[in-house]
Design brief:
- The model has no long low-confidence stretch (mean pLDDT about 80).
- It is elongated and about 45 Å long.
- A hairpin with a 5-residue loop joins strand 4 and strand 5.
- The relative contact order is 0.19.
- By secondary structure, the chain is an alpha+beta fold.
- Helix 1 crosses helix 2.
């Protein structure tokens, strides 16, 4: 999820380069929503199956910092269980 990726970004020194296709998609979403500043470049592949894209995350914007603050204020999810007849449980 892009927001989990944003949480990871707050713990690394920026700028950071990303080459994994899934992470580049996260960067694209976060960039389009204004939560980060980044550059996504297309590279010339050396081999037919090489990744042809690279993203550089420059910084987390003020909106991104505000979103991170909202996520850290969320209460922890409680794990509850319901007991049914015949020993069945619903988690």
């Amino acid at each position: 999820m892009p927001l989990l990726f944003l949480m990871r970004l707050q713990h690394v020194q920026l700028p950071v380069r990303v080459s994994c296709p899934e992470e580049i998609r996260h960067v694209s979403v976060l960039l389009s929503t204004g939560l980060i500043e980044a550059e996504i470049a297309t590279l010339e592949p050396n081999t037919p199956y090489a990744s042809s894209r690279l993203a550089t995350v420059v910084r987390i914007t003020a909106a991104g910092v505000a979103e991170l603050a909202k996520m850290s204020d969320m209460p922890a999810l409680r794990r509850t269980a319901l007991q049914f007849g015949r020993g069945l449980r619903l988690m």
